[in-house]
UniProtKB/TrEMBL annotation:
Gene3D superfamilies: 3.40.50.12500. Transmembrane segments: none annotated. The keyword Repressor does not apply. It holds the Pfam family Amdase. This is Maleate cis-trans isomerase. Keywords: Isomerase. GO terms for molecular function: isomerase activity.
C-alpha cells in the first residue's frame, strides 16, 4: 500500500487471509493485524468478523492461533481503562478519519474531539515526527471533557516517545493503536502487560 485510501486499504484487507495462512506455517502463538484503518474502513464491527475469519484460516492450516486486530484492541483498550469519552489524533485524510470516529462511536465510546493530519502517503505517515504530537493535543479545545486521548489512531504513525509527555501534559491517560495492539497481544500470550514508557494501558494494571 502506497497511499492510505479506502480502495488501497480494501485491497490490503483482501490479502489478509493468505497472510494469516502463511504466518501460521511458523506455528506462532498469536497474530496481530496491525492496521487499524484497514479494518475500520470496512464497516462498523468488522474487526470481529476479520478476527474470526483469520483465526479460522489458521485452524484450517493446522496451526491455530488467536488473532488480534489493532481496531479491536484500541476499542478494548479504551474500555479497559474505563474511558467513555476520548479525543483522537489520526494521520488520515478527513473522510477516512470520520470513518474511524464513527466506528469507535458505534462501539459505545464518545469521540468528543478529533484531529485529522491529512497525510495520504503511507511512507510520510511513518515519517511523521512524534515530537509534534504534544502541540497537536494542546491545540484541542475540549480536553476537559474527555477521559483519555488516543494519541495515534494508526499503528504506522510514530507516537511512543510522546505518550508519557502528553500524559504529564494533560493529566489523563494516553493510549495509541500500537500500544493497544501490544497490550492485546501480551494478554493473548498471558504475559505481563507492564511496559515502562507505554502509558496507562501498559502500566501493568490492565
Amino acid at each position: 500500500m502506497k497511499h492510505v485510501t479506502k480502495e488501497e486499504l480494501s485491497k490490503m484487507d483482501g490479502a489478509s487471509d493468505i497472510c494469516a495462512i502463511e504466518l501460521s506455517d511458523a506455528a506462532v502463538n498469536v497474530m496481530g493485524y496491525a492496521c487499524l484503518v484497514a479494518i475500520m474502513s470496512m464497516g462498523n464491527g468488522y474487526h470481529r468478523e476479520s478476527q474470526a475469519r483469520l483465526h479460522q484460516a489458521t485452524v484450517d492450516n493446522g496451526n491455530p492461533a488467536p488473532v488480534v486486530s489493532s481496531a479491536g484492541a484500541l476499542v478494548d483498550g479504551i474500555k479497559a481503562i474505563g474511558a467513555k469519552r476520548v479525543a483522537i489524533v489520526a494521520p488520515y485524510m478527513k473522510p477516512l478519519t470520520e470513518l474511524v470516529v464513527d466506528y469507535i462511536r458505534a462501539e459505545g465510546v464518545d469521540v468528543v474531539e478529533w484531529r485529522a493530519l491529512e497525510i495520504s502517503d503511507n511512507l510520510a505517515v511513518a515519517a511523521h515526527d512524534p515530537a509534534r504530537l504534544p502541540g497537536i493535543v494542546a491545540s484541542m479545545e475540549h480536553l476537559a471533557d474527555v477521559d483519555a486521548v488516543v494519541l495515534s489512531a494508526c499503528v504506522q504513525m510514530p507516537s511512543l516517545p510522546a505518550v508519557s509527555i502528553v500524559e504529564a501534559q494533560i493529566g489523563k491517560p494516553v493510549l495509541t493503536a500500537a500500544i493497544a495492539t501490544t497490550w492485546a497481544m501480551l494478554r493473548a500470550l498471558d504475559l505481563d502487560t507492564r511496559v515502562p514508557g507505554g502509558g496507562t494501558l501498559l502500566s501493568g494494571a490492565y
